[in-house]
Amino acid sequence: MVVNNTTLSVERVRRLLTAGNRARILVIGDVMLDHFIWGGVSRISPEAPVPVVEFERESFMPGGAANVARNLAALNVFTEVFGMIGRDENGRRLKDLLSGQKIRCGGLLTNAARPTSVKTRIVAHQQQVVRIDRETRDVIVGDYGKGVVTQPLLNELKALCRARGVWLSFDPKPVHRLNLAGLSLITPNRKEAFELVNLTDETRCPNPLADRNLMLAAERLLNELRPAVLLVTLGESGMLLCQRGQQPVHIPTVAQEVFDVSGAGDTVIATFTLGIVAGASPLEAARLANHAAGIVVGKVGTATTTTDELLNSFQR
């Protein structure tokens, strides 16, 4: 078992990002609109023991699969997104936001029978107070659990990508079961990794490589689903990179400050996939994704990173 503390050279990162600019990446899944209400708290409500947030402003950002696309576009990757929106104002706003970031939206289908999924977060003094979800879950089978990714769709994607040698990354949401066998990359967080193999996360060890439960969950995921790469995100503990026939590698976090983890998983899968299509090894792609995640959690709200920020992170 290996703890990897080495990093990529700045020049190698620059070459990978430049090569990634020649790639085309398609993002498929549950697109959402992230709505932030910003304010301050100076008192507790006399009606109930809750803070009174004094409204200052609001903002909207692409969320869910749309945030994955946004992360790629921020790194100058040609990106297209397929998903479903409602025939409503939030759907139009989401499409405008994506188009404004040069993301192709021809694959966004409009469905009058369901609203656009919206997550409203109320933030006071850079801390999230509460989140309100507005959505319809007609077919809850996976991904973000909002109904776009079904087993027939996933099966067709796997067949098409296998036949054409296309890398297929998947961020699983084990709310409902999908057959995830044979994917190029799966990126569960710790909780999702245990849920996917029906194990109870009973203990936690400061060193992920010495965490027997985590190692068992990773081993079962590799054996049962047989992905080319398994990348388990571990929050403040960094990442665990696993490949069949190789020792797991623990990649410690490089985050200097953590203000908001919203969308960090989107950044990880976007940047890792960018690294792979640019010619990086899985370990190099994981290091790239780790630095990108370390940048976005230091920002408030659903955030992305830029090429310059990534290069500066590796220089540090």
Record keyword descriptors for this entry.
single chain, 316 residues, alpha/beta, 4-stranded mixed beta sheet, 26% strand, globular
Task: Describe the 3D structure.
The chain is of the alpha/beta class. It has a single domain, classed as Ribokinase (UDP-N-acetylmuramoyl-L-alanine:D-glutamate ligase), CATH 3.40.1190. The chain is built from nine helices and 13 strands. Strands 1-13-12-11-10-9 form a six-stranded mixed β-sheet, with helices on both faces. Strands 4-3-7-8 form a four-stranded mixed β-sheet. Strands 2-5-6 form a three-stranded parallel β-sheet, covered by helices on one side. Strand 12 and strand 13 form a beta hairpin.
Assess the beta-strand content as a share of residues.
25-35%
Helix content: 25-40%
Q: Report the CATH architecture.
A: 3-Layer(aba) Sandwich
CATH homologous superfamily descriptor: Ribokinase
Largest sheet at a glance?
A: 6 strands, mixed
Work out the oligomeric state of the chains in this entry.
Answer: single chain
Which CATH first-tier class would you pick?
Alpha Beta
N-to-C terminal Cα separation, in Å?
27 Å
What is Rg? 19 Å
The geometry reads as globular
Run of helices and strands: EHEEEHEHEEEHEEHHEEEHHH
* CATH fold type: UDP-N-acetylmuramoyl-L-alanine:D-glutamate ligase
Helix vs. strand class: alpha/beta
- Unreliable stretches, pLDDT < 50, 5 or more residues? none
- Tell me the number of structural domains: 1
